[in-house]
Design a protein that fits this description.
With about 140 residues, the chain is mostly helical. The protein has 1 helix and 3 strands; from the N terminus they run αβββ. It is about 40% helix and about 5% strand.
């Protein structure tokens, strides 16, 4: 004969489910902030690397043209030939003007507003307003 399973052993109790939900809530509460901090620092790292790469492309432009683009020409000069430029061998970048990891355009200024720099190439950071979040070429 087959023994009938005890109905009490057929599933989880409400108390067991509440304990599991509480443990999951604690784990999410502890892990989520750390994961978000990592995401923020990863974007900052990508912005620094992109600024360095674009700086290398600007150096190639300078070798061809004899100087960096003006502030008015901006990074667009790396994609489309500015009207008054000779010896332009571009496009130096494919696609559209580069944007930072927060999808904001990079800020390019020539001449630089900082001493001992030929130009400024900056990301305005997560808010897009700069300030203490601003990341610039070294």
């Amino acid at each position: 004969m087959h023994a009938r399973p005890d109905v009490r052993d057929a599933g989880f109790t409400l108390l067991e489910l509440l304990v599991v939900i509480a443990i999951l809530g604690l784990l999410i509460g502890l892990v989520a902030p750390a994961a978000l901090r990592q995401l923020g620092s990863a974007r900052t790292s990508v912005a620094r690397q992109s600024i360095e790469r674009i700086g290398g492309v600007l150096d190639l432009y300078r070798l061809d043209v004899g100087g960096y683009p003006t502030t008015d020409q901006g990074l667009r000069a790396l994609i489309e030939r500015p009207g008054n430029v000779v010896n332009w061998s571009g496009p130096y970048l494919k696609g559209n003007e580069p944007v930072d990891p927060w999808n904001h355009p990079y800020v390019f200024r020539n001449p630089s507003s900082r001493s001992a720099r030929e130009y400024d190439l900056c990301s305005e950071g997560p808010s897009g307003t700069g300030g203490t979040e601003q990341i610039c070429n070294q």
